[in-house]
Specification:
alpha+beta; Aminopeptidase; 10-stranded mixed beta sheet; binds coenzyme A; transferase; GNAT_dom; acyltransferase activity, transferring groups other than amino-acyl groups; Acyl_CoA_acyltransferase; Acetyltransferase (GNAT) domain-containing protein
C-alpha cells in the first residue's frame, strides 16, 4: 500500500498539523525543555503524511531563508517540527517525509544546503540519513535581539555547499 504525501503551504495547513504538535509537544512538556522559551519561525511548507487509520501521522516543516555564513549571503533550506504520532512510529514515515522535504529543497536551485536543529537522542537518526554536524556558531533573532543559538545542535545536509564550521547567522527566528 502506498503512502500518501502532501506538501502544503505552511500557514494554510497549520490547522491540519496542530493536533499532532499538541500531542507530541504538549505545553507542560515544552515549558520544561532547555528550548522551551525559544520563539520559533513558522514553516513555509509542510510535508504531511496521513495515517491509514485517519488523521495526521507525520509532519516535517520546510523553511526557506537567506542566511549568512561567515558574513556571506546564502539561500538555504531548513527542516523543523519533525514529528510522528506515537502510534505510527517506526514505520519509516519520518524517513519518507524527510526525503520528500530534501527533494523539495533540491528542486529550488538556489538552495545551497539544508540546516536543522535537534537534540542528542535524534543525532543518530539524522546522521544515518546523510546529515552532518555543524561545529561552528549559530546566531538567531529572538524578540529581545540577536542571540547565540545553542538550545539544540545544528546539522547540515549538503547540496552545493558543505559547511561544517564558521558562523551562520539565521537572519531571523530559528526553526
Ligand atoms: C523522531 C521521530 C520523528 C521519528 O519518527 P518515525 O516516523 O518513527 O521515524 P522512522 O520510522 O522513519 O524511523 C525511526 C526508526 O524506525 C526504524 N524503522 C523504520 N521503518 C521501520 C519498520 N517498518 N519497522 C521497524 N523499524 C523501522 C528506522 O530505521 C529508524 O531507526 P534508526 O533511526 O535506527 O534508523 C519520532 O520518534 C518523533 O516524533 N519523536 C518525537 C519528536 C521528536 O523528537 N522529533 C524530532 C525533532 S528534531
Amino acid at each position: 500500500m502506498g503512502i500518501e504525501i502532501d506538501i502544503l503551504n505552511g500557514d494554510a495547513s497549520w490547522s491540519i498539523a496542530e493536533p499532532l504538535f499538541k500531542a507530541v509537544w504538549p505545553r507542560h512538556v515544552v515549558e520544561k525543555q532547555p528550548w522551551g522559551h525559544i520563539e520559533w519561525a513558522d514553516p513555509d511548507l509542510r510535508v504531511l503524511i496521513e495515517a491509514p487509520s485517519g488523521g495526521l501521522a507525520c509532519h516535517v516543516g520546510i523553511y526557506f531563508r537567506t542566511i549568512t555564513w561567515n558574513g556571506r549571503k546564502f539561500q538555504i533550506g531548513g527542516i523543523g517540527g519533525v514529528s510522528t504520532r506515537a502510534d505510527c512510529r517506526r514505520r519509516g514515515y519520518a524517513g519518507v517525509a524527510l526525503g520528500a522535504a530534501i527533494q523539495t529543497m533540491r528542486d529550488h536551485e538556489a538552495v545551497q544546503f539544508a540546516l536543522l536543529f535537534c537534540e542528542p537522542h535524534n543525532f543518530a537518526f539524522y546522521q544515518s540519513r546523510g546529515w552532518h554536524p555543524f561545529t561552528g556558531e549559530i546566531q538567531a533573532e529572538q524578540p529581545g535581539g540577536k542571540i547565540r543559538f545553542e538550545a539544540m545542535a545544528p546539522f547540515v545536509f549538503d547540496f552545493r555547499r558543505a559547511p561544517r564550521e564558521g558562523v551562520i547567522d539565521l537572519c531571523g527566528l530559528p526553526w
